[in-house]
Specification:
mainly alpha, 131 residues, rod-shaped, 2 strands, 6 helices
């Protein structure tokens, strides 16, 4: 092929590309404004949110065992989780959420400072639990 033939083929290709651009512009649909203005999505619910919700429910139903701040936390009896599991269904909590709520409650400096060796521990009703 000669140089002139290559130049003619290039010109044909350029014309074909220009036609495709014009055709694609004319056949494209107009922009849908409702599609562009989407509602912000809610962030996914995390286990930390569920645990905090469980603590709030436990505080509402068992205020002596799970006092609200600024009251100091009280040492919970050994095996309190079994008692919470027994009440979880009536409170609308899954076992997982109840476990994570108690775990969140018992984590942290406020709870660990209330634990004293040989001191009394509190059950769900606020009564003194047998050691």
């Amino acid at each position: 092929m000669g140089f002139e033939q290559l130049a003619a083929l290039k010109a044909q290709l350029d014309q074909g590309a220009n036609r495709k651009k014009v055709a694609s512009r004319s056949t494209s649909s107009p922009v849908d404004v409702t599609r562009e203005l989407k509602q912000p999505t809610k962030p996914p619910r995390t286990s930390a949110d569920a645990a905090a919700r469980a603590v709030t429910i436990l505080q509402r139903h068992f205020p002596h065992a799970f006092p609200r701040s600024p009251a100091s936390k009280v040492p919970l009896k050994v095996g309190i989780l079994r008692d919470v599991f027994a009440q979880a269904a009536s409170l609308g909590l899954s076992e997982r959420d109840a476990r994570n709520g108690v775990k969140l409650w018992c984590r942290g400096q406020r709870y660990w400072t209330c634990l004293v060796e040989g001191d009394v521990r509190i059950d769900l009703t606020g009564g003194i639990a047998a050691l």
